[in-house]
Amino acid sequence: MRIAIDAMGGDHAPKLIVEGALEAANQFTDTHLILVGDEAVIKPLLAGKTYSNVSIHHAADMISAEDEPVRAVRRKKDASMVVAGRLVREGEADAMLSAGNTGALMATGLLIVGRMAGIERPALAPMLPTIDNTGVLALDLGANMDAKPEHLLQYAIMGSLYREKVHGISKPRVSLLNVGTETNKGNELVKETYHLLEAAPIHFTGNVEARDVLQRNCDVLICDGFSGNILLKAMEGTAGTIFAELKTAFGSSWLTKLAAAIMLPRLRQLKQKMDYKEHGGAPLLGLNGLVVKCHGSSDVVAVKNAVRQARLAIQNNLIASIAAEINKK
Amino acid sequence: MRIAIDAMGGDHAPKLIVEGALEAANQFTDTHLILVGDEAVIKPLLAGKTYSNVSIHHAADMISAEDEPVRAVRRKKDASMVVAGRLVREGEADAMLSAGNTGALMATGLLIVGRMAGIERPALAPMLPTIDNTGVLALDLGANMDAKPEHLLQYAIMGSLYREKVHGISKPRVSLLNVGTETNKGNELVKETYHLLEAAPIHFTGNVEARDVLQRNCDVLICDGFSGNILLKAMEGTAGTIFAELKTAFGSSWLTKLAAAIMLPRLRQLKQKMDYKEHGGAPLLGLNGLVVKCHGSSDVVAVKNAVRQARLAIQNNLIASIAAEINKK
């Protein structure tokens, strides 16, 4: 297995990305990691050690957070992210990871790695937090703003296979994000999608309301990119606001500071539960190869976890399984 | 001013609805309140007192929470909600309030009170909580699932006038719910709407992301009914889950119970801040008269506040102002 890692993308790149890759290389000796980026910058980070399963693939340029995604991918042919995508397309790597510019990574997926035959729109599929700490795979979370029922059907098939192949869940419960649990609820998009999902080769468990997502009553949550973004950011914003208010409340007197001292470990745990960044990388599904988006703030553990995730997807033939299922239809 | 109150709708109807109406009658002596419902049930609740500005309008039937909205409104011609709507349509009341079945109230608005000329789709406009406790008027929150840009434009005009006339805000800041703050973000619906709002006779302040709604960076939030519902319920569900987890955490030992005792007043305050039920009734805008939806769990204070709100809208000619602005275009 060969996994290409964009060593130059992310808030802590290249240092923590490279360190994370080295830890992964240590742990997963059957996996070859290709660090893509500026050799002059990466080499010193290897700290003189040589790993038989780590190599550097030089890429002179890089895409920044400020770059306009599509233009950057088209013009910066030597950017680390684009080069990593090319390694996947040309079969020199089985997967790529990047913690860089999300829009640019989606463009790299579409323009460099390429869409899978039969897939109309690839989807970004992060894990949303759930209160039992296991998470739910949600797609699409922003790759495709104007989805059609057929796109949502493909998301359901891809998401279900991902949960099965990568997370080992048999018969993952697939639900549709909606404004009510009844069959006839929602806008035209979800009403039509509902019927498609009923007939699909998945374990469709009906509609889920936004207020119940945290309770994890499904394993895969299907939504269009616009509503999915509203859902994710509303959850994030509400949790962030409450924790900020709690911090102020706990800091207001010596007595409340005492209460804070008592509650601190439990509050930390709760905050962590609500943090969707804790749940590893988000695959971009529907491409001719595996592309995993790591959070911009990824550290050593995040990179190692993303490698673990990509490795499982490769071992269990995720991409081939998706292609087979999509082309059956 | 005459305000019709559906005395039979809501979790605490008729008792708390009638009590709330009596308190309002006491406070607002210039306002005549018409209690619509079963006279045999309502009369004893007046406790022998006579109010010169309270009357009972008998309605033999009622719509329950379980009734199928449109069918119930069509068939139950003597239901208290339907009769209250008829009083508005026939000019016998200037406004109506109900804490009953939301879907049925929207149907009453459309089928009994009637759409305002020039308005394509009425909108339900509750206040969402904000952390500074002032709230933001959001519309549409579920009346219209498949909105067009022109509908969103009308929501913006109506919402802006409501904030001005009822809440006394001059130049209310109107924002569009979107996935990013940049002009070119979002799906086709919001991209087109953005341009319409730029040209509209309102103070348009651009896009707002779901994560920033609680920070109250606008006075009116424009969204389609589907996304609006996702936003509201995601906020509600996240806050509810965090408070439930906090409760468990605070209850886990005698030491954490001590911390809970210290923090209780502050936690209560925070919980109240996050509760959208605290922010009064939600007007249904775009009808030939004022219809206010009170929360199902409305108590005496909620009913009194809804009367206050309706009174301000009547005094300041809300409906006529909306009609004038809509027909200018």
Automatic annotation (TrEMBL), chains A, B:
Keywords: Acyltransferase, Cytoplasm, Lipid biosynthesis, Lipid metabolism, Phospholipid biosynthesis, Phospholipid metabolism, Transferase. InterPro entries: FA_synthesis (IPR003664), Phospholipid_synth_PlsX-like (IPR012281). It catalyses: a fatty acyl-[ACP] + phosphate = an acyl phosphate + holo-[ACP]. It comes from the Bacteria. Belongs to the PlsX family. PANTHER family: FATTY ACID/PHOSPHOLIPID SYNTHESIS PROTEIN PLSX (PTHR30100), PHOSPHATE ACYLTRANSFERASE (PTHR30100:SF1). Catalyzes the reversible formation of acyl-phosphate (acyl-PO(4)) from acyl-[acyl-carrier-protein] (acyl-ACP). This enzyme utilizes acyl-ACP as fatty acyl donor, but not acyl-CoA. Homodimer. Probably interacts with PlsY. This is Phosphate acyltransferase.
